[in-house]
Amino acid sequence: MATIKEIAKLANVSSTTVSRVLNNDESFSVSEETRNKILSIAKELGYKTLIERHQQKQKIIYRIALIYHPIIFKDFIDSDYYFSIRKGIEHLCLQYNIELVNNPVTSHEKITELHGVIILGNYSKHEIDYFLEGVETKHVVIVGNCPDDQKFDSIWFHTRMAVQQGVEYLQKYGHQTIGYMGAKQHIEIPEEERRDVIFKHCLERNGDFDSSIVYIGEPGEKSGYELMVKAIQSNKLPSAFFIANDPIAIGALKALNEAKIKVPEQISIVSLDGHPFTALTNPPLTSIHVPTEFMGATAIELLIERLEKERKIAKKVIVPTQLVERDSCKNLS
């Protein structure tokens, strides 16, 4: 089948022009003469867009591998963040007849005849190199913190914005003693992406940071419960906690309920991730929502763009977050 590059050469225009004409981009301005020339050459060469091939119900258009460490899917509550990303990936694969090969890194299965790879999670450059050993494709998208923006496409959320949204919301509500709970983060995540570091910088501006009410443990609901028990036993509870992970927040809330410490009457909580269970807790948690399913779908779109438009330069997509107000915060002001 003809490529966009071949059509562009024959039409004496750029590949971008060809792509936007063939995909009926209404925002793109081009003369009717050029448009007709491109369409005529494409028809003559038998070129079909991805959507046209999908409409023809071909069996398989592309074959993509999803690579991840299996620990990130160990439990639904603790791993909904990644399940939601995978849902977005699978939805678009189904829509476009893309074969998705799930490949946890412990399987050591060699995958052949791939058009692209999606790596799900936060890993070091060394780990990613290991994951890609023997993989015969240059098209790689990382859904997570990317250690090499020059080499790989990636999609991630605006971490600083997310933490600032939570902290500023609590400050607007008059909270001056704000504690932090979160999980240990990968050693190679840069400081500007670390949730605990961003939290500290947010509070240091007003001189309100107190390291004695910062609690960092393992990921997951169980760890959140244990961290909050520790905080309660310290007899130094702040008026509010920013909790950097929804499963930790769910576990922390369980510990507070068991100790009969009322939320939000005695302590307020803002969490981060947008886990669906945060709407079902008692009380429902105010949370910073990360558009995880959208991130998964965007990962597929990045790969399609690489394959269809022959893009050579790596692209980094940063998505915004949204604060969802519920009933876990008390206004002290």
TrEMBL record:
InterPro entries in the cross-refs: HTH_LacI, LacI/GalR-like_sensor, Lambda_DNA-bd_dom_sf, Peripla_BP_I
Database matches in Pfam families: LacI, Peripla_BP_3
Domain called HTH lacI-type: residue spans: 2-48
Keyword Transcription regulation in annotation: yes
Classification via Gene3D superfamilies: 3.40.50.2300, lambda repressor-like DNA-binding domains
Keywords per UniProt: DNA-binding, Transcription, Transcription regulation
Entry annotated with the keyword rRNA-binding: no
Domain of life: Bacteria
One MF annotation (Gene Ontology) recorded for this entry: DNA binding
SUPFAM superfamilies, per database record: lambda repressor-like DNA-binding domains, Periplasmic binding protein-like I
Full protein name: LacI family DNA-binding transcriptional regulator
Organism, as annotated: Cytobacillus citreus
